[in-house]
Amino acid sequence: MKNQHLAWYALALGAAAVGAFVLGVSSSTILLALVVLVCPVMMLFMMGGHGGGSRPRVHRRCAAQ
């Protein structure tokens, strides 16, 4: 996930919350949905800078033997 897209994600989340409130969804339901979404969203933020990790790594000690 790129940092340049964070503002768009926040805007979309805010628009969805306001839209749900306008459509009559109770505020407690909206808050519950936001709390449930915290876990996967934090995973995206925390794992975003790790670069994928699909490349095999060779340790120097193992390669020297």
Describe this structure in words.
With 65 residues, the chain is mostly helical. It has one domain (3-52). 66% of the residues lie in helices and 0% in strands. The protein has 3 helices and no strands. It is elongated, with a radius of gyration of 20 Å.
List the helices and strands and how they pair.
Blueprint: H1 6-22, H2 27-47, H3 60-64
Number of β-strand runs: 0
Tell me the radius of gyration: 20 Å
What structural class results from the helix and strand content?
mainly alpha
- End-to-end gap: 38 Å
What is the beta-strand fraction?
A: under 5%
Q: Which regions have little confidence, pLDDT < 50, spanning 5+ residues?
A: none
**SSE arrangement, N to C:** HHH
